[in-house]
Design a protein that fits this description.
Membrane topology: Multi-pass membrane protein
Order of helices and strands: HHHHHHHHHHHHHHH
Protein name: Major facilitator superfamily (MFS) profile domain-containing protein
Shape: globular
Radius of gyration: 23 Å
Distance between the termini: 61 Å
CATH architecture of the largest domain: Up-down Bundle
Number of helices: 15
Family: Belongs to the major facilitator superfamily. Phosphate:H(+) symporter (TC 2.A.1.9) family.
Main location: membrane
Structural class: mainly alpha
Oligomer: single chain
CATH class of the largest domain: Mainly Alpha
CATH superfamily of the largest domain: MFS general substrate transporter like domains
Pfam families: Sugar_tr (PF00083)
C-alpha cells in the first residue's frame, strides 16, 4: 500500500514538473516574441532622442532656418500618425509579422537618405519615409504582442513597446554624446545612420517569430494558428501631455537655462534618458500593486510640479547655477512622472 501511494505521488510530482517546465518554456518563448516585436518601437525612441542632439549640428552644417528646424523635428509625429493608419490596413492584408518587416525596410530607406542628405530638401524626404516606417511599426507591435500573449501575461508583455521607446530615446541620447566630437558635417549623419542597425536586426528576427494566431484564423489558416497557439498558450493559465517637447528640446532648454558647452548639454540628456527608462520599469512594477488611478494622480501632480519648476528655472533663475540645476531636475522629474 505504501509502495502504491509512493508511486502515485511520484507520478503527480512528475506531471506537475512537466507542466511547470512547459509553462516556463511558453513564457520564455512569448517573452522573446514580445521583445523582438518591440524593436520597432526602438526606432521611434531612437529617432526622437537622436534628433534632439543631431538638430544642433544639422542647423550648423546645413544652415537651416529656425522654422525649417521646427518642421524637421515636428513632421515625424504627423507622418507617423498617417503611417499608423496605413499600417492597420497593411497588417490586415499582409499579416502582423510582415507589416513589421515592411516598416523596417521603409525606415531603413528613410534613415539612409537622411544620413546622406546634402541639403534640407533631401533630409525632409528621408524624414518623411522614416516617419511612415515608424508609424507602421509602432502601430503593429502592440497588436501583435496582444494577439500572441496568453491572458495571464498579456498586460505585462503589451507594456514592452513603451519600455523600448524609452530605451530608444536613451540610445539616441548616448549616440549624440558619443559622436558629438566629430566634425559637424559628418557627426549628425553618423548619429542618424546608427538608427538603421535595429531595423536590420528586425528583418532577421522575422525569420524566427511566428505570425499572429488571430490573423491566421482570420485568413482561415486554422492548422497554422493551432500550431502557434500550442507554443504560446500557458497551460496554467502622450502625447497630449507635451512630453515630446521636453524630450526633443531638452538640449535647447538646458542651453537656455545656462549650459553652453555642447558636450555637457548632450551628457545631461543622457541623464534624462536614463531617468525615463528607469522609471517606466518602476511604473510597470507598481501598476498592478498600487493601481492605475493612484499612479495617474501621482503622475499628473508630479509632472505639473516639475513643469512649474522648469518654468521658474528659465525665468526667475535663468543663467544662474541654481537655474541650471533646477532645469535638469525638472526635466528628469517630468519624464520620470510621465505615465
Amino acid at each position: 500500500m505504501d509502495s502504491e501511494m509512493t508511486d502515485e505521488d511520484l507520478e503527480v510530482v512528475q506531471y506537475k514538473q512537466t507542466q511547470q517546465d512547459r509553462s516556463s518554456s511558453t513564457r520564455k518563448y512569448v517573452f522573446a516574441c514580445a521583445v523582438f516585436a518591440s524593436l520597432n518601437n526602438v526606432l521611434l525612441g531612437y529617432d526622437v532622442g537622436v534628433m534632439s542632439g543631431a538638430i544642433i549640428f544639422i542647423h550648423e552644417d546645413l544652415k537651416i532656418t529656425e522654422f525649417q528646424e521646427e518642421v524637421l523635428v515636428g513632421i515625424l509625429s504627423v507622418i507617423s500618425l498617417l503611417g499608423s493608419l496605413g499600417g492597420g490596413r497593411a497588417s490586415d492584408a499582409l499579416g502582423r509579422k510582415w507589416t513589421m518587416g515592411i516598416a523596417a525596410i521603409v525606415f531603413q530607406i528613410g534613415a539612409l537618405i537622411m544620413t546622406l542628405a546634402p541639403n534640407f530638401q533631401v533630409l525632409m524626404i528621408g524624414r518623411l519615409l522614416a516617419g511612415v516606417g515608424i508609424g507602421f511599426g509602432v502601430m503593429i507591435a502592440p497588436v501583435y504582442i496582444a494577439e500572441i500573449s496568453p491572458t495571464v501575461s498579456r498586460g505585462s508583455f503589451t507594456s514592452f513597446p513603451e519600455i523600448f521607446i524609452n530605451l530608444g530615446i536613451l540610445l539616441g541620447y548616448v549616440s549624440n554624446y558619443a559622436f558629438s566630437g566629430f566634425p559637424a558635417h559628418i557627426n549628425w549623419g553618423i548619429m542618424l545612420a546608427v538608427g538603421i542597425l535595429p531595423s536590420v536586426f528586425i528583418e532577421f528576427v522575422l525569420c524566427i517569430i511566428p505570425e499572429s494566431p488571430r490573423w491566421l484564423v482570420m485568413q482561415n489558416r486554422i492548422d497554422e494558428a493551432r500550431s502557434v497557439l500550442l507554443k504560446t498558450i500557458d497551460v496554467e493559465a502622450e502625447q497630449i501631455t507635451g512630453i515630446d517637447a521636453t524630450v526633443y528640446y531638452s538640449p535647447e532648454i538646458l542651453q537656455t537655462a545656462g549650459i553652453q558647452e555642447k558636450s555637457k548639454l548632450l551628457a545631461a540628456t543622457v541623464a534624462v534618458g536614463v531617468t525615463k527608462t528607469s522609471f517606466i520599469l518602476v511604473a510597470i512594477v507598481l501598476i498592478d500593486r498600487v493601481g492605475r488611478k493612484p499612479l495617474l494622480y501621482v503622475s499628473t501632480i508630479g509632472m505639473t510640479v516639475c513643469l512649474l519648476g522648469l518654468a521658474m528655472s528659465l525665468s526667475v533663475f535663468k543663467g544662474m547655477t541654481l537655474g541650471v540645476a533646477l532645469a535638469i531636475v525638472a526635466i528628469c522629474g517630468n519624464v520620470a512622472f510621465f505615465p
